[in-house]
Write a structure and sequence with these properties.
Layout: E1 5-15, E2 18-25, H1 30-41, H2 47-57, H3 75-90, E3 93-99, E4 106-112, E5 118-119, E6 127-132, E7 135-140, H4 144-151, H5 156-167, E8 168-171, H6 178-182, H7 186-199, E9 202-203, E10 206-210, E11 217-221, H8 232-246, H9 250-255, H10 258-275
Antiparallel strand pairs: 1-2, 3-4, 5-9, 6-7, 7-8, 10-11
Helix pairs in contact: 1-2, 4-5, 8-10
The protein binds zinc ion.
Zinc ion (ZN) binds next to loops.
Length: about 280
């Protein structure tokens, strides 16, 4: 049946001084699946597209303000929600194809999405504190918004600078002076990254696999944003079938809950079976 899905985030949304770890995802509709299909077809992950998709999927309540919610979620929460959507759509298991680093042979690996390791947020989340060159620095764990800024940066150096500017919230109890941000050395940045890593939640998206051809053990990365595996072509085919039969408009069909849509498709299939 169609129902909203409760998700306990590994980090949580920081609202009015509190961390809200529970959110609800709406029942799946064709609209959401179409967005997932578009995302799957895109060449690169776009943080703003993922934000828009998640914003349309999360149920809003008085603690969950309208608009711009997903862009304020930390990276692991966004990945976790995308994986949850993938599980709602296609179940817990996926077959992925890898190519051996040593012998080039392609091979298939089955993964269980619920088995991916999840590291929960540490004490103090979403903030981390550290000392950099005798100054007390308070940092904030990066969010979707930060990812977007980084994605738009013109160079790696600019990206790093932008990330530091976003994530350093306090230096010695005050707003960070520009001189501090400009003078950060790579070592200072490493220091701050380590402090953030200690509190930031994370998802294990790299796993160890063994090539069945040559036995070489290797690491395989998994894209948590690409697990939904929605095919736009199939969805449009379903739309066509329903529209041809019931003469409903595209908007009406896309608004149907997924289970309802699949139910009507099964009825059509059954009628075809009876007619043949
Ligand atoms: Zn091999």
């Amino acid at each position: 049946m169609d129902h909203a899905c409760r998700v306990t985030l590994p980090g949580g949304l920081f609202v009015d001084g509190n961390v809200k770890r529970e959110v609800w995802l709406r029942p799946l509709t064709g609209h959401l699946e179409l967005r997932l299909a578009e995302l799957a077809a895109a060449q690169a992950n776009s943080p703003s597209k993922i934000s828009a998709l998640l914003d349309s999927a999360i149920v809003r309540d008085e603690e969950c303000p309208e608009g711009g919610l997903a862009s304020n979620l930390c990276v692991a929460d966004r990945q976790y929600l995308m994986l949850t959507l993938a599980r709602m759509l296609g179940g817990d298991h996926r077959w992925l194809t890898a190519q051996c680093e040593r012998c080039d042979a392609p091979f298939d690996i089955e993964i269980a999405l619920p088995a991916l390791p999840v590291q929960l947020a540490g004490e103090g989340y979403p903030f981390a504190t550290t000392r950099v060159r005798d100054a007390d620095v308070v940092l904030r764990v990066p969010t979707g918004d930060d990812q977007e800024r980084v994605a738009n940066a013109v160079s790696e150096q600019a990206a790093l600078q932008s990330l530091v500017e976003s994530c350093v919230v306090r230096v010695n109890g005050s707003a960070p002076p520009p001189s501090f941000l400009e003078s950060c050395t790579p070592r200072d940045i490493d220091e701050m990254e380590a402090a953030l890593e200690a509190v930031a939640p994370s998802l294990g998206t790299t796993m160890s696999v063994v090539c069945p051809e040559c036995g070489a053990e290797q690491l395989m990365g998994l894209d948590p944003y690409a697990m939904a595996g929605v095919s736009g072509e199939q969805l449009l085919g379903e739309l066509h079938t329903l529209a041809s039969r019931y003469h409903w408009g595209e908007e009406a069909i896309l608004s149907l809950n997924r289970s309802r849509r699949l139910f009507y498709l099964r009825l059509i299939e059954r009628d075809r079976g009876l007619a043949s």
